[in-house]
From TrEMBL:
This is Glycosyltransferase family 4 protein. It comes from Paraburkholderia bengalensis. SUPFAM superfamilies: UDP-Glycosyltransferase/glycogen phosphorylase. Residues 171-323 form the Glycosyl transferase family domain. Transmembrane segments: none annotated. PANTHER family: GLYCOSYL TRANSFERASE GROUP 1, GLYCOSYLTRANSFERASE. It comes from the Bacteria. The lineage of its organism: Bacteria, Pseudomonadati, Pseudomonadota, Betaproteobacteria, Burkholderiales.
Length: 342
């Protein structure tokens, strides 16, 4: 089958979406399909650029570009799922979040309110035209139903390099690898360090727009001896930090899916997350393979102190996290079977 996958091109911004896009293209090719990836340029601002991006996507007729017949289109991101094709499958990573779950009418503008209406109308039209709609997670499917009245089937996929994750003897630190952004809420963990009584260390890996703010927060709270902000690390280094961690911390707000949860499970590490974390809650069971706490610095600090005081119980929770990964049966083969089905 000739399959065209559509996604976004956002220069110099890389993250989980990149792994998702590359992963599905590679998996479809391994299954014997002819696959091309069409990346549409996308900018989050100014707002007029988003309007132009929607118009451009809607203008694309992908039935027979340049005389080559395309059997199926699989779209992963807004606004690419607006392109026209009679056999169009949308596998939604997330929508334009600022128009949906992150929308705040108290802080919005008239211009953005008008854009939001256009985005919702665009999504409603595009996704109801699709022959099938899948979601990156149950949380993303819930949003599609809540905001658009669209039924979507959750379709999970594995993180990259699953076979390379391992578990080594734990050292007294917890690990939190992620972009340094407000929604990931590294600030909660930094603030928690101020309330901790144990000597457990916190390792924050990654880079992003909040790097300087978090460095300043660490200095202002005087927790530099407890919190290490180590910046960008390689994939191999990331797996080594996972392997030696006592546990993994991931308190992000309303995450779409969350590779960090799955990577922790693959590394036999329990996950500390929050009640409003979104995607991670589909995998973490409180008191079993991890912990679900309030998004509160003192609550997180108390749990981190518990982890420090209970190394054996924490290791047992990590073993159950690995068992939960196997029980979930998440694979690219299953993804391809679903997306390429008749």
């Amino acid at each position: 089958m000739k399959i065209l996958v559509t996604a976004n091109l956002v220069p110099f911004i890389h993250g989980g979406a990149t792994y998702h896009i590359d992963g599905v293209v590679s998996a479809l090719r391994r299954a014997g399909h002819e696959v091309e990836l069409l990346k549409l340029p996308f900018r989050f601002s100014p707002e007029a650029d988003i309007v132009r991006a929607m118009a451009h996507a809607s203008s694309l007729d992908l039935v027979q570009p340049n005389g080559v017949s395309i059997d199926r289109v699989i779209s992963l991101q807004f606004p690419g799922y607006g392109a026209a094709h009679p056999d169009h499958r949308a596998w939604v990573m997330h929508q334009h979040r600022a128009a949906y779950e992150l929308y705040d009418p108290q802080r919005s503008t008239a211009e953005f309110d008008a854009l939001r209406k256009q985005i919702i109308a665009f999504d409603n039209a595009a996704l109801t035209r699709a022959q099938a709609v899948f979601a990156n997670s149950r949380r993303v499917a819930q949003r599609l139903q809540q905001f658009n009245g669209i039924d979507a089937r959750p379709l999970y996929h594995p993180p990259a390099h699953t076979e390379h994750f391992r578990c080594d003897d734990a050292l007294p630190y917890v690990f939190f690898p992620s972009r340094l952004e407000t929604l990931k809420r590294q600030h909660l963990v930094i603030e928690a360090a101020r309330h901790m009584r144990s000597s457990l260390k916190i390792v924050l890996a990654g880079d992003g727009g909040q790097r300087q703010a978090y460095a300043a927060l660490i200095e202002r709270l005087g927790v530099g001896d407890r919190v290490a902000l180590i910046g960008h690390i390689t994939e191999e280094e990331k797996r080594a930090f996972y392997a030696r961690a006592r546990a993994v911390v991931f308190p992000a707000f309303d995450e779409d899916y969350g590779y960090i949860t799955l990577e922790a499970m693959l590394s036999s590490k329990p996950i500390l997350t929050c009640v409003d974390a979104g995607g991670p809650l589909e995998f973490v069971r409180h008191g079993d393979n991890g912990w679900i706490e309030a998004p509160d610095a003192e609550a997180i600090a108390a749990r981190l102190d518990w982890i420090a005081a209970h190394p054996e119980e924490t290791a047992d929770a990590g073993a159950r996290a690995r068992e939960a990964w196997h029980a979930a049966d998440i694979s690219w083969e299953r993804v391809v079977q679903t997306l390429a089905a008749a």
